[in-house]
Specification:
Chain A is mostly beta strands and 115 residues long. Chain A has no helices and eleven strands. The model of chain A has no long low-confidence stretch (mean pLDDT 91). The chains are: A mainly beta (115), B mainly beta (117). The interface between A and B is medium-sized, with 28 and 29 residues.
Chain lengths: 115, 117
């Protein structure tokens, strides 16, 4: 079955620690995205990538980093510079933005909490 | 200014009744897309329905329809014959084709729908 796999489902971070959230897709999509969701809020874009080896900052990129070395994978690192990392993180993908109107497919999310 | 506004934090509907979830948007781009997603308690975002700014007819997908009023900049989701499994958060989102917002899907804050047996 095609889809987006995020792991782990739950993740705990200690003070000063970097953690990496995994996102893998087998939909053959060119574009991938990372969103953050806080309780009672909508989703906010952290980073997105339209093609391998290229990515752009979204609205709230500070304290986060990404890489896109393979088409299938778009890992997100939450660095120690992110002072309020507790949130639900969602990865998504879409076909290449030919019209800019392609729908996004989402993974099941990772809940990150600070110890 | 918010690009997507959902004014109903929570809604209740009786099972088998229809319900309308409101969404207004703000854009100066003539070409854009409007999306509705459902988020059950499991957390995954499930795509429901899409409306393009140039589409002449309102989009429909099974029990979901989108009441698109372009002049009013509104894109309300109508769910007919509500089921218990419809209880979830519902998010309206917009994707603009050009400008700084291009390629980004901007979300509203969501409406929590509860279906009463």
């Amino acid at each position: 079955d095609g889809g987006i796999t995020q792991s782990p489902k739950y993740l705990f971070r200690k003070e000063g620690q970097n953690v990496t959230l995994s996102c893998e897709q087998n939909l053959n999509h060119d574009a991938m995205y990372w969103y953050r969701q806080d309780p009672g809020q909508g989703l906010r874009l952290i980073y997105y990538s339209q093609i391998v080896n290229d990515f752009q900052k979204g609205d709230i990129a500070e304290g986060y980093s990404v890489s896109r070395e393979k088409k299938e994978s778009f890992p997100l690192t939450v660095t120690s510079a992110q002072k309020n990392p507790t949130a639900f993180y969602l990865c998504a993908s879409s076909t290449s933005a030919g019209t800019g109107l392609e729908k996004l497919f989402f993974g099941s999310g990772t809940q990150l909490s600070v110890l | 200014a918010q690009k997507i506004t959902q004014t109903q934090p929570g809604m209740f509907v009786q099972e088998k009744e229809a319900v309308t979830l409101d969404c207004t948007y703000d854009t100066s781009d003539p070409s854009y897309g409007l999306f509705w997603y459902k988020q059950p308690s499991s957390g995954e975002m499930i795509f429901l329905i899409y409306q393009g700014s140039y589409d002449q007819q309102n989009a429909t997908e099974g029990r979901y329809s989108l009441n698109f009023q372009k002049a009013r900049k509104s894109a309300n989701l109508v769910i007919s014959a509500s089921q218990l499994g419809d209880s979830a958060m519902y998010f309206c989102a917009m994707r603009e084709v050009s400008g700084a917002g291009s390629y980004q899907l901007t979300f509203g804050k969501g409406t929590k729908l509860s279906v009463i047996p």
